[in-house]
């Protein structure tokens, strides 16, 4: 049976990996690893050109979400937790394709890797075809490599809020968007493309960016009258939290809204602390409490009280194609703060851990290595540290 088209000579690659959880980047190492094989006819082997560092990657170095992620690994047919290769999104070139794949060797692609699978901070990554797509010609490798994890998270949040990406609303909904980081940057563009009237709450230095992307207004969250303006600028059909404030924020003000959607769920944190059952029950109780708090804080009684909802990243081939089309039309941009050469992974992670980035942080795996790293990768039992 023909499992794959194309081939990579059996060999090794360089990959950023950890073998134990720790604070910060203490265990992050640049190592020699085997090029991952194709194991199913719907898989692709991609030579990574660029890959971004997301907040989840930083958190996973310390074990964040390990209970749920290990359960997903078991359901996926493997109990392999370590070595952990971080990295959730990428851009690159297909070098081998399973027999059932439509993408071909040589195709330039962008894609994502679910958190329970070995990630993209390596020279090669194996992914299912449905997690990838042809990369937009309108985006550079640096932009495409930093796009999809944040963009698909934004798609998930808008869908939970009743505003599916790529679909124009019959009447312009009024939406409050909290935060203009990687996810908020994409969410704003998707909302504007759908015809929404968007109010953005963000830091002062991002207000101009928000209006340039089509926001109806941008509110400086450090301003003394910020809370008052948030309340007076409503009512909102949806409030989308991309700032990490969480569901408790829904009941913190007397603002009017129908749905409050946050990507900052306590589910993984609580299951890490209390186990799957205990943490799941505690998370459900927290969601109910946040909804009741929002209903009590509403300015007036309503037959339809406001709802608090959680959204989670989910790879979707339809959303990936929608995002590609938006990018080709010039309706989707990606802001990149800095591109690091692949051997500076520790420095890149440390920058990400400090927070406050004003764009994506990207690792470039196409750059020629310095002399100290120019030799072939070390044998399996040896590692190369960037420290």
UniProtKB/TrEMBL annotation:
SUPFAM superfamilies per the UniProt record, alphabetical: GroES-like (SSF50129), NAD(P)-binding Rossmann-fold domains (SSF51735)
Gene Ontology CC entries for this record: mitochondrion
Any one GO molecular-function label of the UniProt entry: oxidoreductase activity
Location of the region described as Disordered in the Swiss-Prot/TrEMBL record: 368-387
Pro residues bias (residue ranges): 368-379
Organism: Danaus plexippus plexippus
Top-level taxon of origin: Eukaryota
Protein name (record): Zinc binding dehydrogenase
One Pfam family named in its UniProt record: ADH_zinc_N_2
């Amino acid at each position: 049976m023909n499992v794959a088209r194309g081939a990579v000579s059996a060999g090794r690659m360089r990959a950023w990996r950890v073998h134990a959880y720790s604070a910060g980047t203490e265990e992050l190492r640049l190592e020699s690893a085997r090029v991952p094989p194709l194991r199913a006819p719907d898989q692709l082997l991609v030579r990574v050109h660029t890959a971004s560092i997301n907040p989840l990657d930083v958190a996973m170095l310390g074990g964040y979400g390990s209970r749920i992620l290990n359960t997903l690994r078991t359901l996926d047919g493997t109990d392999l937790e370590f070595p952990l290769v971080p990295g959730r999104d990428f851009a690159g070139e297909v070098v081998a394709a399973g027999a059932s794949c439509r993408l071909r060797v040589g195709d330039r692609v962008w894609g994502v890797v679910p958190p329970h699978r070995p990630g993209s901070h390596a020279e090669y990554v194996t992914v299912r075809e449905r997690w990838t797509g042809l990369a937009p010609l309108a985006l550079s490798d640096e932009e495409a490599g930093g796009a999809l994890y944040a963009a698909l998270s934004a798609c998930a949040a808008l869908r939970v809020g009743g505003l599916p990406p790529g679909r124009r609303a019959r009447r312009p909904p009024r939406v409050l968007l909290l935060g203009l980081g990687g996810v908020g940057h994409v969410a704003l563009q998707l909302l504007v493309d759908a015809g929404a009237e968007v109010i953005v709450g963000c830091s002062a230095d991002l207000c101009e960016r928000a209006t340039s992307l089509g926001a109806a207004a941008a509110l400086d969250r450090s301003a003394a009258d910020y809370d008052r303006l948030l309340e007076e600028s409503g009512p909102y059909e949806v409030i989308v939290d991309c700032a990490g404030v969480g569901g408790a924020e829904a009941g913190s003000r007397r603002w009017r809204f129908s749905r409050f959607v946050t990507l900052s769920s306590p589910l993984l944190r609580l299951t890490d602390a209390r186990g799957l059952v205990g943490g799941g029950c505690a998370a459900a109780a927290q969601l109910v409490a946040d909804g009741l708090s929002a209903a009590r804080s509403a300015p007036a009684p309503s037959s339809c009280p406001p709802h608090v909802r959680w959204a989670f990243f989910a790879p979707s081939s339809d959303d990936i194609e929608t995002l590609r089309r938006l990018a080709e039309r010039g309706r989707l941009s990606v802001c990149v703060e800095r591109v690091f050469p692949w051997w500076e992974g520790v420095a890149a992670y440390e920058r990400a851990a400090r927070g406050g980035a004003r764009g994506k942080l990207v690792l470039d795996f196409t750059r020629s290595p310095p002399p100290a790293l120019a030799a072939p990768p070390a044998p399996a039992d040896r590692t190369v540290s960037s420290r």
